Amino acid sequence: MHFQIRYRSLCHSLLYLALLSGFFACKSALPISSPGELPSPPEPRSSVNVPLQIPAGTLTSLMNSQIPIMLYQIENSSLGNGLEGTLNLRRTGPLTWSAVDSQMIQLTVPLQITGEVGLERTGLGNLIKGKIPIDERFQPTFAIDPVILPNWSVGVESFELIDLGGELGLNLMGMELDLSGVLRKQIQKWAAENLVAKPSVANLKPLVDLAWAQAGKPIVVQWQGMSKAFSIQPTQAKLFDYFDSQGNFNLWLGLDGKINTHPADAAPSRAFPLPNLQSNSDSTNRLEIILPVGVSYEQLDRLLQENLGNRIYRVDKKTTFIPSNFKSQAYGDRIGVEMDFSAEKSNGKQLEGKIFLVGKPAFDQKSESLLFEDINFRLESDSFQARTGAGLKRNKIIRQLEKRAQFPLDEIIEEGLAAIQGRLALQTPLAKFQIQDLKISPSGFYPQSSSFLIYLKASGRVAVDFN
Question: What is the mean pLDDT of residues 282-293?
């Protein structure tokens, strides 16, 4: 991988300076002898909040696609006011609507009523047994207070028929019958039974689950020959909705979760389930994900050995150096690397010993490189010349180590960018979602007993393009 080539350049620089330090250093009483406690990494989390503004036209199309053509049917039933018959209530065209306030809408639906109506077979109805066919059109207007419930379904808190939108009357053998009141009562009865009294009138969960099934699958990142998968396990789903003065439907949708790490070949095949909805007070557009990338010390040792071991390096005009047997480890909040060395002077004199380096990992934003600050070292050698030179050169050596001990992280950053953008880019029947202004950089380094943990923080925003 490209990373290994760049990692080699790091190690060349680090070892060069380490070797240089080795010929001027002695055992130190500085903090290298007391590593301190290992850092406690925070729980990796994800958080996304998207303010959605569904245009009035899009919502109108959605309503028209969801409201059925046949709305109401009764056969040979009592209609009240001494009437009975069969009625069919059909939608004959697209509905129109407007927002009354932030929560309530006014809905006008063009309807056709067909069927037949006659007198109930009691009293006068026993004498007049015929029924009169009905085929009338009108446009009633309703006031509705819809609400999105915690279980991702849509309910109706209130329903009111404001205007019937026409008069319905019949002449039955010279008798004028006003059916407007009958129809009004039937509509109110239907709404009470099928809208207000029901726990929900529509379920959004299948549509939401369809999108989340794609976005919630694990994110796979490859680095240093490793392949890791990161899954989002939602812990909170939040929502706030309202209509604005232009009739747009606004949703503040938020989702918080914890990040789980898996081997790529053992990642979950499906997204974790979404929790019930809670209230949301956040109107910002933001995306934040922490990817905890762990590199084992065995992997670090292997990379060091493969790229640097048993090779000859020139320290200065008179000295060459061969490192071997790399052993990395956590050293408090630092990384420690121990290595054997064999050096040879131009006069044929050979030196052998061990070098132990420690440095605190940090990130340089400008160069996108991992570097080591507060570097210190210790040399163990039988050479009196090597041990006694440390006092004169220590500060200079440390400055050089801090300057050169760094290597690029652009490979893992690019890999993370591509993985997140690919996973969270969604195409749904309602809208297209894309991640914009996505940036990734390390937010923390946590040497642990079994691995070196790098937290990569991805941040950006979500762009939504409604169909």
Answer: 95
